[in-house]
Design goal:
This protein is mostly helical. It has a domain of about 90 residues. Helix content is about 45%, strand content about 5%. The chain is built from two helices and two strands. The protein has a two-stranded antiparallel sheet. The longest helix is centred in the first third of the chain and has 52 residues. The radius of gyration is 27 Å and the shape is rod-shaped.
Length: about 130
């Protein structure tokens, strides 16, 4: 009678070593992934702010008065929809109204600038609400 002592499979120590290596690699990859997601959101925010500011300037030049709300830009056909603030996760922008003395139409003021509604700080260290 012949017995076989050849076992197939991995030992518990080998499995623990492999799992340890995988967990170390994942713990290094997750922060880099999260930072790349945040960089992407910051890039989209910069692009959305640039677009909104350009459209506000075009509206003001064409109509000889600044828009009263961001929805005016949509209703007049300057935008299809109000873009989303990717950092705040909504389209509630912080609008800055112009001074009556410096406005194009001094009888009614309108939107001069837009900023992010988020209270978070960017990777550069500046608040998004100051961009």
């Amino acid at each position: 009678m012949r017995t076989r002592n050849n076992r197939r499979g991995y030992t518990l120590v080998e499995i623990i070593i492999v799992l340890t290596i995988i967990s170390i690699l994942v713990s290094m990859a997750v922060p880099m992934y999260q930072k790349s997601i945040l960089r992407t959101k910051e890039s989209v925010l910069k692009n959305n702010l640039f677009t909104l500011r350009t459209v506000i300037d075009e509206f003001t030049y064409d109509k000889q008065k600044a828009p009263q709300t961001l929805q005016d830009l949509v209703s007049e056909g300057y935008l299809r929809q109000i873009p989303e603030d990717p950092i705040a996760g909504n389209n509630q922008w912080k609008v800055i109204m112009e001074d009556a003395l410096t406005s194009v139409n001094q009888t009614e003021t309108g939107i001069f600038d837009v900023r992010s509604g988020s209270d978070k700080t960017s990777l550069e260290g500046t608040p998004y609400s100051e961009w």
